Amino acid sequence: MNDLAQQRTTIHSYEDRYLRFRTKAGFAFRSEIGGLIPNGWTTIEQAEWMASVAAISDDDLLLDIGAGRGWPGSLIAKETGARLVSVDVPLEALRQGAKDLCETLGPRVLQVCGDGRVLPIGDAHFSAVCQADVLC
């Protein structure tokens, strides 16, 4: 399998994983935990710790690579006041997180469909990078 075919297979695999949580059981699970952990294994306490040590504020730009639905970057941005660029490959993940991100951060969030290797943003724009539950 060539590189492009492998990339497409990987993208479809992640899209399928996000679609699975659109079931009654997936919604019930997120409701049971308060909807506070939209994806991933990072706990609220860990995300709060990241926010406390990030040394960023409302003048800063936070990059969340492999953000999925926006966790934990959304909590870090909310706690610090930073603006958030939320990046992930599966478009379905970004779609599922869009409403919550807009409600939480308003105009302080930008979602980008991409893998983090090539972003439509120049170098030296970010004050901090968040990457949780992602192997790059």
What is shown here, in short?
It is built from five helices and four strands; from the N terminus they run H-H-H-E-H-E-H-E-E.
Question: What can you tell me about this protein's structure?
Answer:
By secondary structure, this protein is an alpha/beta fold. The protein has one domain: Vaccinia Virus protein VP39 (Rossmann fold, 3-Layer(aba) Sandwich), CATH 3.40.50. It is built from 5 helices and 4 strands; from the N terminus they run αααβαβαββ. Strands 3-2-1-4 form a 4-stranded parallel β-sheet, with helices on one face. The radius of gyration is 15 Å and the shape is globular. The model has no long low-confidence stretch (mean pLDDT 83).
Task: Describe the structure using short key phrases.
4 strands; 5 helices; Rossmann fold; 136 residues; single chain; alpha/beta
Q: What is the tally of helical segments? A: 5
User: How does the overall form come out from the CA principal axes?
Assistant: globular
The value of Rg in angstroms is 15 Å
Q: What is the CATH first-level class name?
A: Alpha Beta
Record field, number of beta strands:
4
Strand content: 5-15%
Would you tell me which CATH topology applies?
Rossmann fold
CATH superfamily: Vaccinia Virus protein VP39
- Enumerate the spans where pLDDT stays under 50 for 5 or more consecutive residues: none
Helix content: 40-55%
What order do the strands of the largest sheet run in, or round the barrel if closed? 3-2-1-4
Number of domains: 1
Secondary structure class reads alpha/beta
Oligomeric grouping of the chains: single chain
CATH architecture name: 3-Layer(aba) Sandwich
Distance between the termini: 20 Å
